[in-house]
């Protein structure tokens, strides 16, 4: 498997990693889409050659705070999160990673995430690096015109062009968007991350920058002077990850080893787990994963066609507020 090779020429950082603080959007199940402890994730990333470490859990920085509470300040770590954002004008939804934040900024980001334009303006004013993630997955429910989509993308300084859980087609369309925006004088920094939900793929995809420490890496990230490298989505390990998460969920429900369930919410979660067990046994996760990849492939094909038919990509009217010096 691909492994980062840090050298004097640069730092390597996996900018898309989850911990057990990431949750699925099914409240009744009380399920998580990752069961790896923050300290385990941190150690794994460092052992696989990552120069710095960050976590991008869904709409929370609790994993980052847990690590810092346990280990104190870490010179090779910074706080990040993956934010679920919406565009009320077009109905499009995206995942955007924000990097090097704190608790105050996290609270404001969560307050603004219902309007992607307001959020982008805030991030720009505060000089917070932000990346549009796994564009292919977002395209599955794409709404509005090509211009609507590109206005949102160009509002952020970074785009994830190498996601270790996405197909090559999905990553290539992100590269295509970044390349064409660059030709229009709107360059975007290209970042990469494993999008790992287990320890298996952490550090197999990364972002490289010519940096010597955390401060200089974050400066490169903010300026877009980065490149994405590493592995794309191998189907076998991806399916292994899916079933590992499912197995951890059932163990969590049966034993509650980490106290994730209270006495009041355990019965409902246990009932949902029991009802869904036959579906897991007949390989529903495999079918769902394959269906998702097929839908993403169709969506990125449609976008590539639309881009080819509209090489000027107009209108692109949105201009974020200039960043703080």
Structural features, described:
The protein is an alpha/beta fold. It has one domain (11-237, 286-309): TIM Barrel, CATH 3.20.20.140. 44% of the residues lie in helices and 12% in strands. It contains 11 helices and 8 strands. It has helices at residues 38-47, 62-71, 103-112, 116-126, 135-139, 146-154, 168-183, 214-223, 235-255, 266-281, 284-309; strands spanning 11-13, 80-86, 93-99, 130-132, 158-163, 189-193, 205-209, 227-230. Strands 2-3-4-5-6 form a 5-stranded mixed beta sheet, sandwiched between helices. Strands 1-7-8 form a 3-stranded antiparallel beta sheet, with helices on one face. A hairpin with a 6-residue loop joins β2 and β3 (93-99). It starts with 10 loop residues before the first strand and ends in a 16-residue tail after the last helix. 42% of the residues are buried.
Secondary structure layout plus pairing:
Blueprint: E1 11-13, H1 38-47, H2 62-71, E2 80-86, E3 93-99, H3 103-112, H4 116-126, E4 130-132, H5 135-139, H6 146-154, E5 158-163, H7 168-183, E6 189-193, E7 205-209, H8 214-223, E8 227-230, H9 235-255, H10 266-281, H11 284-309
Parallel strand pairs: 4-5, 5-6
Antiparallel strand pairs: 1-7, 2-3, 3-4, 7-8
Helix pairs in contact: 7-11, 9-10
């Amino acid at each position: 498997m691909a492994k980062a090779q840090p050298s004097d020429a640069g730092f390597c950082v996996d900018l898309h990693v989850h911990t057990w603080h990431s949750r699925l959007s099914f409240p009744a199940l009380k399920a998580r889409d990752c069961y790896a402890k923050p300290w385990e994730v941190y150690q794994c990333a460092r052992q696989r050659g990552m120069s710095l470490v960050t976590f991008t859990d869904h709409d929370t920085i609790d994993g980052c705070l847990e690590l810092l509470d346990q280990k104190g300040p870490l010179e090779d770590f910074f706080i990040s999160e993956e934010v679920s954002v919406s565009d009320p004008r077009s109905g499009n939804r995206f995942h955007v990673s924000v990097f090097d934040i704190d608790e105050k900024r996290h609270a404001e980001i969560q307050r603004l995430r219902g309007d992607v334009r307001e959020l982008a303006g805030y991030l720009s004013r505060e000089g917070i690096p932000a990346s549009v993630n796994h564009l292919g997955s977002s395209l599955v429910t794409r709404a509005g015109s090509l211009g609507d989509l590109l206005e949102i993308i160009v509002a952020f300084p970074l785009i994830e062009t190498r996601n270790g859980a996405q197909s090559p087609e999905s990553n290539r369309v992100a590269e295509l968007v970044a390349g064409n925006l660059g030709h229009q004088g709107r360059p975007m920094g290209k970042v990469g991350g494993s999008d790992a939900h287990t320890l298996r793929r952490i550090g197999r995809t990364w972002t490289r920058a010519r940096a010597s420490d955390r401060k200089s890496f974050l400066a490169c990230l903010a300026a877009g002077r980065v490149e994405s490298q590493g592995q794309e989505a191998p189907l076998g390990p991806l399916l292994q990850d899916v079933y590992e998460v499912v197995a951890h969920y059932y163990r969590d429900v049966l034993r509650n080893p980490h106290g994730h369930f209270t006495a009041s919410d355990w019965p409902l979660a246990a009932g949902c787990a029991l009802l869904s067990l036959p579906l897991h046994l007949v390989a529903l996760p495999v079918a769902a994963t394959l269906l998702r990849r097929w839908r993403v492939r169709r969506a990125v094909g449609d976008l590539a066609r639309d881009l080819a038919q509209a090489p000027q990509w107009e209108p692109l009217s949105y201009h974020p507020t200039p960043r703080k010096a």
